[in-house]
Structure formats: structure tokens, C-alpha cells
Design a protein that fits this description.
- The protein is α/β, with parallel strands linked by helices and about 400 residues long.
- The chain is built from six helices and 28 strands.
- Strand 20 and strand 21 form a beta hairpin.
- Helix 3 packs parallel to helix 6.
Length: about 400
């Protein structure tokens, strides 16, 4: 049995980024850039007014109030046609190009409109350059605006549009197959008979993977026989990642590990000093990474977050593979019973400008309902004996 840290390191050491592909920038959200992106333009592309107001020569406003002659109206999307001379001003809208000669923009609020005689009264002295965005001050032609390895969020989509990058290279998201094992399992629409339960793991695991942009296929449920498990695993070996839930413990019908070995799978680990989720198997068959997770739903959920989450992130090209861990003040005393690292469903909130956390009521690794009241996992490290109220503890936010 190995430690959580060792298991995670093994997973991230053996996985590699998938090949890059070219996609429309509109469909790149959530993916990872596989190239640097350069700008083909300056932004702003010209000296641009940052306000609705009047483009003036700052020196004309040294003594105020002062009246200036309006020579032109400049709307956004139109280039000025007249040069501003001393004693003159051009009415200008936000985003419009500043006319030649002008070196400042006075806001409408600092003027008095006397345009009936085509003049404006400036009420406040203004400094040269005020309210003007200089050409190229945000982005310059040829500048690298996005770097390889960056996550593409809405703001990156906006930058891609700004610099005309309608198609972009990204790392591929992995294909993921999910198998739920257990003779007792029935599908969602079926009413379970005695000794049966619905297949919840397949759908929650699929949701966890899809949230990371993985391409997921639910391969179905199988009965606890080597033949059935082997048959459906062969279908799953066409994927980048194959996830199985159930059948990995020490019982008579826990056959997944045996089937993996029968298929000559390279096994990296089989047990992790973890609660919930000790019996978790990680291996590789040909090009497919296989994760065999416990059947209890909370254990399945936790082991996905610990091991499959970083594997998917690395395969997608991200340099940051793990969820953020940070400190929160504990609101409830915790007594540690087992010398395995625990990940307890907990609720994290802000109180008096500090994070506080409390475990939710939890009846063990089969109690999936408890996780709906949680927004983080509270880490109880294996070397701890007792956590007291007010002690700083590590938490993994999930939302």
C-alpha cells in the first residue's frame, strides 16, 4: 500500500499531453493552448478617446472657462477629417479616433454646451494626454498575447477574437470510457428490486470528466463475471482513459484486478493509504490508462478528484494539474481514528474575512447524499491525532 502523494506522483509522471489539434476559437473554451498567439494589430489601433467629450489642445484650457469653436463631430467607427487648431475642438465619442492636433479629451461633464452658435465652453483645465488611449498601449503588433499552456477562458476567447485568431491549436481532450461493474446494478429508469441499486457512479463519474472537457462515453454496466468484464473492457481500450467502478476490493466477486492482469495490463499501484478509496488500481494497457475505482460512490468521487483529475489535466497540456489546496479554520473538533489520509466532505464559507470549514454529516463512503451538502474536501492527514476548533486545516475546494 502506497501513500496518496506517491500515487498522485506516479499518475502525473506516466501521463503525457495528447497531440495538438486545430479548432475554431469559439469551441476552444476550457481547453489548453498548444501554441503562442501573436497579435496582428495594435490595440488600440489608433489614438482613441476614452470618454465622450471634446478633443482639444490642452494648452487652450490653461485659463478657464474658455470657449472653443466646434469643427467636427466624430463618432466611433469614423475617422476624423479635420485637424484641430488652437481655439478649436472636435466633439468626440468614446472609442473614436482622436483627430490630428488634439492632445486631450475633456469630458462632457466638464463643459457647457453652447452649440447653438457652434461653440463649447470648457470649465476645467486639462492635462495633455488626459482621456486618450494611445495607439498600441494595450497590445502591439507582433506581441505574444497568449502563451502555450494557458487555459482558454472567456477572456482568452475575447483576445483570440481581437487578434483575428479564428482557428487555434489546442491540446486534445482525452476520450474517456466508463464501466460500472456489479450484478446488483440497474439503470436509472429501472425500479431496483430487492438486493439491487441504481447505477449512480457511472453518471457522476461522467459528469466529473465532462466538467474537465473530456469526451466521455458511458459503456454500461456489467455483471460480476470475468467474461463480462473482459468483454466490455476490450471496448473501453479504444479510449485514452478507461474508468471502472466496483469490483476492486478483496471479495469473491471483486474481479476487475484479475481481469486487468489477465489482459497483461501494466499495473502501477493497487492500494493507496486513503479513506475513502483504499482499493484503487491504476494501470496501462497499450495506449489506454485504466483506473479501477471503488464501488462506493463517495470513494469513487474522491479517487476521481485525486487521481483522474490530474491525469486529464496533464493529458490536456495544462502545467497546473491539481486542484488548489488552501487553509481554513476548523469549526468542529475532529478525532482521527485511522492512520490513513482522509478526505471528508465539508462545507467551506467566508466568515469575518477568513475561510472557515466544518465537516458535513457523513455516514461513510456509501453516503453520496452528504456530498451534495459539501463544497470541498477536508484533508485529515495520516500523521494527525486530533484537530481542535480554530486549527488551520487543508481543504480542497470542489466548486
Amino acid at each position: 500500500m502506497i501513500s496518496v502523494d506517491t500515487a498522485v506522483k506516479i499518475v502525473t509522471d506516466v501521463t503525457e499531453p495528447l497531440p495538438a489539434k486545430t479548432v475554431s476559437f469559439e469551441s476552444a473554451l476550457g481547453l489548453c493552448l498548444a501554441q503562442d498567439v501573436q497579435s496582428d494589430i495594435n490595440m488600440p489601433p489608433f489614438d482613441r478617446s476614452a470618454m465622450d467629450g471634446y478633443a482639444v489642445i490642452a494648452e487652450d484650457t490653461v485659463c478657464v472657462p474658455v470657449e472653443l469653436t466646434i469643427i467636427e463631430d466624430i463618432a466611433a467607427g469614423h475617422m476624423p477629417t479635420k485637424k484641430v487648431m488652437r481655439g478649436q475642438a472636435s466633439k468626440i465619442m468614446t472609442g473614436a479616433a482622436v483627430p490630428v492636433g488634439a492632445d486631450a479629451v475633456v469630458k462632457f461633464e466638464e463643459t457647457e454646451d453652447i452649440s447653438a452658435n457652434n461653440r463649447v465652453k470648457i470649465l476645467r483645465t486639462i492635462d495633455k494626454g488626459r482621456n486618450i488611449s494611445i495607439m498600441g498601449e494595450d497590445i502591439k503588433v507582433g506581441q505574444i498575447v497568449l502563451r502555450k499552456g494557458m487555459s482558454i477562458r472567456p477572456q482568452e476567447i475575447g483576445i483570440l477574437a481581437t487578434v483575428g485568431k479564428s482557428c487555434v491549436e489546442v491540446f486534445s481532450a482525452p476520450t474517456v470510457g466508463i464501466i460500472s461493474t456489479g450484478t446488483e446494478l440497474v439503470d436509472v429508469e429501472s425500479k431496483p428490486a430487492a438486493a439491487q441499486i441504481r447505477n449512480s457512479n457511472g453518471y457522476s463519474l461522467a459528469a466529473q470528466a465532462r466538467r474537465l472537457k473530456a469526451d466521455v462515453e458511458l459503456l454500461g454496466t456489467v455483471k460480476d463475471t470475468k467474461e463480462e468484464i473482459s468483454r466490455i473492457m476490450h471496448r473501453g481500450l479504444q479510449k485514452d482513459i478507461l474508468i471502472l467502478s466496483g469490483g476492486v476490493s478483496m471479495g469473491e466477486y471483486d474481479l476487475v484486478g484479475d481481469v486487468m492482469k489477465d489482459l497483461n495490463t501494466q499495473i502501477y499501484f493497487e492500494k493507496v493509504a486513503l479513506r475513502p478509496g483504499k482499493p484503487v488500481i491504476f494501470g496501462k494497457k497499450d495506449k489506454t490508462f485504466i483506473f479501477a475505482l471503488p464501488g462506493n460512490p463517495v470513494a469513487s468521487f474522491v479517487t476521481f478528484e485525486l487521481f483522474i483529475y490530474p491525469a486529464i489535466r496533464k493529458m490536456m497540456g495544462f502545467t497546473s494539474h491539481h486542484r488548489t489546496i488552501f487553509k481554513a479554520s476548523l469549526e468542529t473538533e475532529i478525532l482521527v481514528k485511522r492512520k490513513r489520509r482522509e478526505y471528508r466532505p465539508a462545507f467551506l464559507r467566508m466568515q469575518n474575512n477568513a475561510w472557515v470549514v466544518t465537516p458535513v454529516e457523513w455516514h461513510g463512503s456509501a453516503d453520496l447524499l452528504s456530498t451534495t451538502r459539501a463544497n470541498c474536501l477536508l484533508i485529515v492527514r495520516e500523521d494527525a491525532e486530533k484537530f481542535t476548533v480554530g486549527q488551520l486545516v487543508d481543504v480542497v475546494p470542489l466548486d
